[in-house]
């Protein structure tokens, strides 16, 4: 099994960083292979703009996009790790998806057909939140309501299935012991 880890957090002291370290340990202990991209460390350009479209029209892909696409292509399982910001992804991850999951790579679409190209791959999405689970439930904001763009509208659309979402709630409000227990609960 080959995993690809897509990691989007700017702070090496964050809980997300600890999740990423735990996941790498789990993968190594299992004897699986993995590739890794840290979008902030790479300073990945998240803005889908004219150079991308011009390259696509020439039948080419820009080098940073090509590098990520090669990693996606080789992986059986994608692992996303990110904090929930405004009930979505950090912009750098949204932009990675915009640019890397391009027409012709992640799917093919013309006037008549839409064909997913990433079938056969699965995903796990690790997210952290500031909000407690019961507060979300009280406000009709259950996980499924804000994760569908990612699970169905993005990964599902390009054929990646199944996708498991692993949420960690109220991270800034819980104790170090609780955070440690959450990290230990992570299995790959
Ligand atoms: C710009 C920004 C937007 C945020 N939006 C949300 C949000 O919509 N829902 C939520 O529960 N927490 C939100 N938070 C809180 C973070 O999700 C939380 O602090 C983080 O997941 C904790 O993990 P970390 O220590 O690894 O950063 C937001 C934080 C920031 C900085």
Q: What does the model show?
A:
This is NAD(P)H-dependent oxidoreductase. Belongs to the NAD(P)H dehydrogenase (quinone) family. Residues 1-181 form the Flavodoxin-like fold domain. It is a single chain. By secondary structure, the protein is an alpha/beta fold. Helix content is 40%, strand content 20%. It is built from seven helices and seven strands; from the N terminus they run βαβααβαβββααβα. It has a five-stranded parallel β-sheet, sandwiched between helices. β1, α1 (15-30) and β2 form a beta-alpha-beta unit. The longest helix is centred in the N-terminal third of the chain and has 16 residues, at 15-30. The radius of gyration is 17 Å and the shape is globular. Bound molecules: flavin mononucleotide (FMN). Flavin mononucleotide binds at residues 9, 14-16, 83-87, 128-131, 171-172.
């Amino acid at each position: 099994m080959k995993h690809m880890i897509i990691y989007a957090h700017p702070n090496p002291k964050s809980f997300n960083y600890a999740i990423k370290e735990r996941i790498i340990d789990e993968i190594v202990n299992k004897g699986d292979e993995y590739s890794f991209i840290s979008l902030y460390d790479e300073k990945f350009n998240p803005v889908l703009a004219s150079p991308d479209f011009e390259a696509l029209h020439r039948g080419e892909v820009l080098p940073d996009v090509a590098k990520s696409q090669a990693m996606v292509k080789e992986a059986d399982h994608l692992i996303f790790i990110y904090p929930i910001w405004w009930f979505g992804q950090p912009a750098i991850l949204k932009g990675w998806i915009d640019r890397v999951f391009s027409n012709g790579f992640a799917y093919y679409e013309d006037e008549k057909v839409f064909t997913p190209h990433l079938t056969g791959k699965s995903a796990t999405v690790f997210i952290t939140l500031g909000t407690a689970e019961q507060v979300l439930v009280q406000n009709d904001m259950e996980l499924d309501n804000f994760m569908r763009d990612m699970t169905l509208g993005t990964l599902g659309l390009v054929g990646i299935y199944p996708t498991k979402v692993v949420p960690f709630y109220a991270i800034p409000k819980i104790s170090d012991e609780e955070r440690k227990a959450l990290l230990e609960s992570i299995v790959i």
